[in-house]
Amino acid sequence: MSSVGLLYVGAVLFINGLMLIGVVPGKSAAILNFFVGIMQVVFPTIILIQANNDLPTIFGAAGLYLFGFTYLYVGILQATGISGEGLGWFSLFVAACAVVIGILQFTLVADPVFGAIWLTWAVLWFLFFLLLGLGKDSLAYTTGWFTIFVAHITGTIPAFFLLVGRYETNTGLALLVTVAAVAALAAAFFLGRRGIPHAKPSTQDGVAVTA
């Protein structure tokens, strides 16, 4: 994933996490989801057109569609009021793909840091599945807080390292990302149990909407 694309993944995840914990209204969050969703569909399409059957390039672009379609889906749901079950089950598909891509990052690409990042995204998208696909509304705050944390752990921070040419990948750094992700998940469950008394998650037809 390009540094610019990764930066805006961090941005939209941050906004969607705030939407889930009731800080940002759904229709307001929909705007950024449309912007980033379109970017994450147009850019990989251009890459694929110019790939000339180069498999590493195609592999790198393919995962971007998972994000692009998710954000466009969120934008449409928030703008129209359609319930989120379809997005929830799509999130299960994304989570499964993220596991595969994460393993390939370790084995095929030799990039353990992005392997850890992809596996973290798999956990996040699985939470979206539980929340939206299975209607586990009690996970709304937990998912929202984890989304906020993951936005920076897997998006903003590595994007800036890439942008300034300081990105490195090794087993030690991958372990650091993993520890940060586990700590973020634990913190999200703690904060999710407490909730926020003055706010409600963004919901439509009784189903919280995020991604």
UniProtKB/TrEMBL annotation:
Instruction: Cite the InterPro entries for this sequence.
Output: AmiSUreI_transpt, AmiSUreI_transpt_sf
Q: Which Pfam families match?
A: AmiS_UreI
List the transmembrane segments: 6-24, 31-49, 55-74, 86-107, 113-134, 146-167, 173-192
Q: Which UniProt keywords apply?
A: Cell membrane, Membrane, Transmembrane, Transmembrane helix, Transport
As for membrane topology, the entry says: Multi-pass membrane protein
Chief location category = membrane
Which Gene3D superfamilies does this UniProt record tie to the protein?
Answer: 1.25.40.600
Compartments (UniProt record): Cell membrane
Report the sequence similarity comment from the record. Belongs to the AmiS/UreI family.
What name appears for this protein in its UniProt entry?
Answer: AmiS/UreI family transporter
What species is given as this protein's source?
Arthrobacter vasquezii
